[in-house]
Amino acid sequence: MSDIKSFVENSSVPLPANWSVMWRDYIRMNYLSINVVCETNVIDVNQQTLVYTTNTLISNIGAQAGLWLGLTVLVFAELIELLYHLLRFTFQKIRSKMQRNK
């Protein structure tokens, strides 16, 4: 009980005026005592392992980037091919009109 008294006196808790006389009653009325008892000697060890490692993360980011960049390059190449065919068709049409007019 004296350990609790010294702890309370050294803390920043304001003490009542009659602390020196009534400290036992004050501690019993205002503080709670908890007894921690070891119920068993069995120790549970919980280990967690990473499922999503750093290597997996970097690999997935690279795969997604490759997929989307690959699709972007593919779409870009198809657009260039479409423009090529449109220009070729237009020039052939103009050339055939010029040959008919001669």
From TrEMBL:
Q: Which Pfam families match?
A: ASC (PF00858)
Q: Does the keyword rRNA processing apply?
A: no
Give the highest taxon in the source lineage.
Answer: Eukaryota
The membrane-topology field of this record reads: Multi-pass membrane protein
Q: Where in the cell is it found?
A: Membrane
Q: What is one cellular component GO term in this UniProt entry?
A: plasma membrane
Positions of transmembrane segments: 65-87
Q: Which InterPro entries match?
A: ENaC
Q: Which residues form a coiled coil?
A: none
This entry's Gene Ontology molecular function terms read: ligand-gated sodium channel activity
Which UniProt keywords are given for this protein, alphabetically ordered?
Ion channel, Ion transport, Membrane, Sodium, Sodium channel, Sodium transport, Transmembrane, Transmembrane helix, Transport
Family, according to the entry, reads as follows: Belongs to the amiloride-sensitive sodium channel (TC 1.A.6) family.
Stated name of the protein: Uncharacterized protein
Q: Which organism is it from?
A: Rotaria magnacalcarata
